[in-house]
């Protein structure tokens, strides 16, 4: 059975004008009439959602897996990115013979509300003005992203998810799914994530936001007809990228090694290899991401507090769901350390929800879930197969 929605408008890359259909996935964008009621009280209509699917929906629509992406991710989870040409961000997890296999599963990954790869956000057109929303786009939350994904799944004919899977900000969405739609999720996989941001998390994000807004090209967010605030966005990405790594990983990869030069010179060029690496990460990011979207999504992450959404007690978020849970943390992740996952496990235990938990060892810090992690693949594969 082919899922409904396959005849939606092909997603068009605004830079190339080309259809972004991929050989191993279907890239689509759908405009849903809405309205989508946001947590801030605004009714958003219509709602554009860009997404990719892999595999086919079975006869009883019971094999759907929703993958939720992280802050700077997108819907191109297992097919080449149309702008960068690079492989999808989770080809280690999604594909033939992988834990999430299109031969068994109907896989859906949607660009989150507020992002810039085709879903409604600051860079899309406000139908009331005919111009990009910019900072006029309504404030969004993680739960708003989840509600938009539910609208897409309704459109695709998916009533109940076999599983929802996500890492980092994707893990926040995965947690929010059974809390928001307790009857629509059978299994939930949360990797390297948290149920709320700490003051330190918020502080790092604020440094990035201030870097963007201090760029003279930002102009209050009204830059879409002119030069974008790429310098500020690059600095924001550099600062954030440090939090995704571990000290041991940085030391092993770069140490204090200097750049190879014909003659030694001191100054403010990228003398150290780690400096050059961070600058490259920052500049490459500006080629594929919108500065205003960065502001909106980081703010949504900072607002996220699943306990506060349910009377101040995290266990309350899970009392109505029958979902199984799997939580995974990494021992070198200092952005969302293992203690954050343990707090979620304790809340799930208090709610009587079935949960498994493992802390994996990796030198790669928070980014470990995106990198080669055979143990993670085994955990996810075993958990998903156990629910068949």
Output mean pLDDT: 91
The CATH topology name of the largest domain reads Rossmann fold
Query: Beta-strand percentage?
Result: 5-15%
Radius of gyration: 20 Å
Descriptive report:
This protein has 388 residues and is an alpha/beta fold. The chain has two domains: 26-198 and 306-386, 3-Layer(aba) Sandwich (Rossmann fold); 200-298, Rna Polymerase Sigma Factor, Chain: A (Orthogonal Bundle). Helices cover 31% and strands 14% of the residues. The protein is built from nine helices and twelve strands. It has helices at residues 142-156, 169-180, 199-214, 230-244, 247-253, 273-286, 291-303, 338-351, 374-386; strands spanning 26-32, 36-37, 43-44, 47-54, 64-68, 106-110, 125-126, 131-132, 163-167, 187-191, 324-330, 355-360. The protein has an eight-stranded mixed sheet, with helices on both faces. Strands 2-3 form a two-stranded antiparallel ribbon. The chain has a two-stranded antiparallel sheet with strand order 7-8. A hairpin with a 4-residue loop joins strand 7 (125-126) and strand 8 (131-132). Helix 3 (199-214) packs antiparallel against helix 7 (291-303). The protein is globular and about 60 Å long. The chain starts with 25 loop residues before the first strand and ends with a helix. The model is unreliable at 1-7 and 11-24 (pLDDT under 50).
Would you spell out the secondary-structure blueprint of this structure?
Blueprint: E1 26-32, E2 36-37, E3 43-44, E4 47-54, E5 64-68, E6 106-110, E7 125-126, E8 131-132, H1 142-156, E9 163-167, H2 169-180, E10 187-191, H3 199-214, H4 230-244, H5 247-253, H6 273-286, H7 291-303, E11 324-330, H8 338-351, E12 355-360, H9 374-386
Parallel strand pairs: 5-6, 5-9, 9-10, 10-11, 11-12
Antiparallel strand pairs: 1-4, 2-3, 4-6, 7-8
